[in-house]
Amino acid sequence: MFTRTGAESTVDATPPLLAVGESAGVAMPYGCRRGICFGCLTPLTYGRVRDLRTGEVHERTGQMIQTCVSAAAGPLALDAWPPRSPRDCDPARFHRDDPRKAPR
Ligand code: FES
Fold it and tell me: Where is the 2Fe-2S ferredoxin-type domain (predicted)?
């Protein structure tokens, strides 16, 4: 589910959440679509997502999710909303949420 729009999709655990949202008509934020720019960061409202690159599962409410390289790992909701400013796409926001992902 995409909480700001009310759009819902039922998919298996393989398509990136960015593509799922776009297919549901949600104006998802994005940039490179390859896990590089962090332009697709979207807060997780609830549920579990899996990083398609590492297999790591994220489930902390409010955690910023890279939707272009993450898929559903069960029922979930994203607080999908287009970015209002360049700050909304700031990769540092993602790193602050998860210290293990701090830039080197
Ligand atoms: S769109 Fe660039 S990291 Fe997701």
Answer: 10-71
Q: How far is the CA of 41 from the centre of ligand 1 (A)?
A: 7
Asked if residue 50 belongs to a domain, the reply is yes
Atom of ligand 1 nearest to the CA of 32: 2
Question: Domain with 79 in it: what CATH number?
Answer: 3.10.20.30
The whole-number pLDDT of residue 16 equals: 96
Residue 95, classed as helix, strand or coil, is helix
For residue 1, the surrounding DSSP H or E stretch is none
The Å distance, Cα 91 to ligand 1 centre, comes to: 10
Mean pLDDT for back-to-back runs of 10 residues, the chain (104 residues) = 75 90 88 96 95 96 96 92 53 52 51
According to the model, what pLDDT value does residue 84 have?
A: 53
This prediction's pTM:
0.75
* Residues near 8 by beta carbon (within 8 Å), at least 6 away in sequence: 1, 2, 24
- Nearest atom of ligand 1 to the alpha carbon of 69: 4
